[in-house]
C-alpha cells in the first residue's frame, strides 16, 4: 500500500486532531514515518487542518469533470459539466495545491497555470489527485 493512500484513507475514515495521532494510525499498519516526513507528505497532498481536524481534499463529484489536458508549454485546461467551472476553480484555489499559481474559470472551462513553467507535471499530478481522477 502506498503511504499517501493510507494517509488519505485514515483522514477520510477518522477524526485526526494531530500528526502524532496520524503517525500512530500509520504505524499500526507498519508504516513508520517521522513527524517531519509526515508534515511534508501532508503538504504534498494538500491536506489542511479545518476546525481542529486534518481534512483530506474532497474529490470532485462523479461526472463533474469531463477532461484535463495540457496545452501550450505551461497550461492545463480542465473541462467540467456546464455551470461547474467556477465552483471547482474556487475549490482548487483553496485546496492547498502547492504548484498551482492561479486559475481562470468560465462556465465549463478552467485554465490552470503552475507556479513555475517546469512545475506543470507536478501541478497535473496534484490536480488529478485532488479531483480523484
Describe this structure in words.
By secondary structure, the chain is α+β, with helices and mostly antiparallel strands. The protein folds into two domains: 3-55, Arc Repressor Mutant, subunit A; 65-131, Gyrase A, domain 2. The protein is 39% helix and 23% strand. It contains five helices and six strands; from the N terminus they run αααββββαββα. The chain has helices at residues 3-13, 19-27, 35-45, 85-93, 120-131, and strands at residues 48-50, 53-55, 65-71, 75-80, 100-105, 109-114. The strands form two sheets. Strands 3-4-6-5 form a four-stranded antiparallel beta sheet, covered by helices on one side. The radius of gyration is 16 Å and the shape is elongated. The model has no long low-confidence stretch (mean pLDDT 86).
CATH architectural name of the largest domain: 2-Layer Sandwich
Overall spatial form: elongated
Largest sheet: 4 strands, antiparallel
Q: What class, by secondary structure content?
A: alpha+beta
Pattern of helices and strands: HHHEEEEHEEH
Can you give the helix content as a percent range? 25-40%
Q: Helical segment tally?
A: 5
Q: What's the CATH first level of the largest domain? A: Alpha Beta
Query: In what range is the share of β-strand residues?
Result: 15-25%
Please indicate the count of domains: 2
Rounded to an integer in angstroms, the radius of gyration calculated over CA atoms is 16 Å
Question: Could you tell me the number of beta strands?
Answer: 6
CATH topology of the largest domain: Gyrase A, domain 2
- Report, as a whole number of angstroms, the end-to-end distance: 18 Å
- What's the mean pLDDT score? 86
Trace the largest sheet across and list its strands.
3-4-6-5
Amino acid at each position: 500500500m502506498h503511504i499517501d493512500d493510507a494517509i488519505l484513507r485514515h483522514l477520510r475514515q477518522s477524526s485526526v486532531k494531530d500528526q502524532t495521532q496520524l503517525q500512530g494510525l500509520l504505524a499500526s499498519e507498519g508504516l513508520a514515518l517521522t513527524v517531519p516526513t509526515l508534515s511534508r507528505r501532508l503538504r504534498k497532498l494538500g491536506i489542511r487542518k479545518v476546525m481542529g481536524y486534518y481534512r483530506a481534499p474532497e474529490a470532485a463529484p462523479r461526472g463533474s469533470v469531463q477532461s484535463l489536458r495540457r496545452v501550450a508549454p505551461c497550461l492545463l485546461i480542465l473541462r467540467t459539466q456546464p455551470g461547474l467551472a467556477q465552483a471547482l476553480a474556487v475549490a482548487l484555489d483553496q485546496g492547498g495545491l502547492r504548484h498551482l499559481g492561479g486559475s481562470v474559470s468560465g462556465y465549463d472551462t478552467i485554465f490552470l497555470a503552475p507556479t513555475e513553467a517546469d512545475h506543470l507535471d507536478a501541478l497535473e499530478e496534484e490536480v488529478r489527485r485532488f479531483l480523484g481522477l
